[in-house]
Write a structure and sequence with these properties.
With 278 residues, this protein is mainly alpha-helical. It has one domain (5-276). 79% of the residues lie in helices and 0% in strands. The protein has 8 helices and no strands. Helix 3 runs antiparallel to helix 5. The chain is elongated, with a radius of gyration of 26 Å.
């Protein structure tokens, strides 16, 4: 690492960004069961077991509500097809509440496989680090004291932007884990809604929303791959320009790409929901 303070400040900011990007890469391939040593998953399972008992009670309630709203009179239950349809709906709802966790984990496993496939297809075992071009390093190191003063201001502002964007990005990915845990914990209540025809839309919306949260990982991976390709090709630098102009041009374009990536990651849930019509 260079002894120049301006170079060190930029390299430290880029190091923070690279660390957070690598952490995102690892988080997206990590199973929620093993996240943070599995302690969170154990608590979620305990909550899910408690909510499951409530969900089974709601199955009966939604089933009765469905019968009351869809059947004009009890005489309709003399028709075998009505009875079979109602009992089939009740059995499906009970099975979803009882085995919903296994179904949700299977869906998550399928989407995690898609994410891994995207990573391997993109040719990235890990996101390549963003580094400071050697031409900029040389230009900064050749500056005298007075010429380096505006560089300090530029690198302080640029480094602060990069640092903030890196933490906004990683917090968004952590938020995806929180949503997965919350969906898993309360799933029996929403899945119980399949017991009644008037309330089944609640269950359908829940499944779509859960699938959208799972698919957010694929959108984030695609955004990271595209950013890595952009970052691997730094902007054309005019070596005859002043050092502050070179640094300002490089940091400006880099921050713009980082803003696009961070914004895409933050809007990944909206993108997937629009794709799925949720």
């Amino acid at each position: 690492m260079s002894d120049n303070w301006v170079v060190q400040n930029l390299e430290n900011a880029l190091s923070t960004w690279n660390d957070k990007l690598s952490e995102i890469w690892q988080l997206l391939t990590q199973n929620i069961v093993d996240f943070k040593g599995g302690g969170i998953w154990t608590i979620i399972l305990n909550i899910h077991s408690t909510v499951q008992a409530i969900g089974l009670a709601l199955v009966v309630l939604f089933f009765l509500m469905g019968i009351i709203k869809t059947c004009g009179s009890l005489s309709e239950f003399k028709r075998p097809e009505v009875v079979v349809k109602a009992l089939l709906r009740f059995c499906i709802a009970k099975a979803l509440v009882t085995h919903g966790l296994e179904l949700m984990m299977t869906l998550l496993g399928i989407i995690q496989g898609i994410i891994t496939k995207i990573m391997s297809s993109g040719g990235f075992a890990a996101p390549p680090p963003t580094t400071l071009p050697s031409s900029i390093v040389s230009a900064i190191e050749n500056c005298d004291f007075w010429s380096s003063i505006p560089l300090w201001a530029v690198t302080l502002i640029g480094g602060l932007f990069i640092w903030v964007l890196s933490f906004v990005m990683i917090l968004t990915v952590y938020g995806r884990f929180f949503k997965l845990y919350m969906y898993t914990a309360i799933s029996p209540i929403s899945l119980a809604a399949f017991a009644g025809e008037p309330t089944q839309s609640i269950g359908v919306s829940f499944i779509k929303s859960y699938a959208a949260v799972c698919l957010e990982g694929a959108i984030i991976v695609l955004a990271c791959i595209i950013f890595s390709v952009f970052a691997a090709t730094p902007p054309a630098i005019n070596t005859s320009a002043a050092a502050v102009t070179m640094v300002w041009t490089y940091i400006g374009e880099l921050i713009f790409n980082m803003l696009v990536l961070t914004g895409t990651i933050k809007m990944s849930d909206r993108v997937v929901r629009e794709m799925m019509g949720v």
